[in-house]
Design a protein that fits this description.
The structure holds two protein chains of two kinds. Chain A is an alpha/beta fold. Chain A is built from three helices and five strands; from the N terminus they run E-E-E-H-E-H-E-H. Classes of the chains: A alpha/beta, B alpha+beta.
């Protein structure tokens, strides 16, 4: 199963990005193959609609769960309609590696 | 909100979707459901929704007019979803400290989406609820009670002195 995580950088030591639509990178982690893919966010400079576009991006990568610090109201309803689960972690110091560890339960 | 609609709205057949939709909010949807589907009187429906009868009639009128507009002008109806509906069903995990949502309303959530722990609790966000500040007051002894929407203050008996109560904030115009 694929999980998308918002990240401030492109390494496993990077921290969770507290924004969704305008995060620096998206991490796509596959819980079965344990593969990790870092995607720089192409919508980071968008004036509006970054959330919607980012939502479509992670959905097109097959993510069934998304982990971030916060999500905007409009993007919550987008994910609801796509039946993608949201996880909010309010810890700005959390590293991508420890989130991946939690997912490997 | 007891029974939110499980779909997002209606579209006229054969017309383009880009036609400035009519937005019906959940109160209005509920009014149509209670009066036109369940056939309750306005008095009963107002009680069910926890509002006064005149307020209920206003909501119901508004709902009917919007439906008529959509019918006559061929417009899409969209149920205002947003906060009330989609911000419900959130859980917090005591193990990893995350919040996660529940996408399939029919099933029960038993595990944290992130860490799998069963040490989870449902999160109730009370900031959306309206605090009832209305009071009935007794002109004889000054006692105040919380006003129940749907029951006029003048029908209430003071629990203190058994006098007739009045709506707080209303000036007496006769002795």
């Amino acid at each position: 199963m694929k999980v998308a995580i918002t990240s401030t950088g492109n390494s496993l030591e990077s921290k969770l990005d507290s924004r969704f639509g305008r995060c620096s990178y998206f991490v796509i982690y596959d819980t079965e193959s344990h593969s990790v893919e870092f995607i720089p966010n192409p919508y980071i400079e968008n004036i509006e609609g970054a959330g919607q576009a980012s939502g479509q991006l992670v959905a097109s990568r097959g993510a069934q769960k998304v982990v971030s610090g916060e999500f905007g109201v409009k993007v919550k309803s987008l994910f609801d309609s796509l039946k993608i689960k949201l996880v909010i972690l309010k810890d700005p110091e959390k590293k991508i590696s420890s989130i991946i560890e939690l997912l490997n339960h | 909100m007891n029974n939110p609609p499980h779909f997002k709205g209606f579209s006229p057949i054969g017309l383009s979707e880009e036609n400035h939709p009519v937005i019906i909010n959940f109160e209005e949807y509920e009014a149509i459901r209670l009066s036109d589907f369940e056939f309750h009187s306005h008095v009963k429906a107002a009680q069910i929704m926890g509002v006064s009868r005149p307020t209920y009639t206003r909501i119901y009128e508004s709902a009917r007019r919007k439906v008529a507009k959509a019918f006559v002008q061929g417009r899409t109806i969209v149920f205002e979803g947003g906060k009330v509906y989609f911000d419900s069903e959130w859980y917090s995990c005591n193990s990893c400290g995350c919040w996660f949502n529940h996408t399939e309303r029919e099933l029960n959530m038993e595990h944290c989406t992130l860490c799998g722990s069963t040490d989870i609790e449902q999160f109730f966000d009370n900031s959306d609820q309206v605090v009832n500040e209305d009071r009935c007051v007794c002109p004889t002894c000054g006692n105040e009670i919380v006003h129940l929407p749907g029951t006029p203050c003048k029908n209430q008996i003071c629990p203190n002195c058994n006098g007739q109560m009045i709506q707080k904030g209303v000036y007496l115009t006769r002795e």
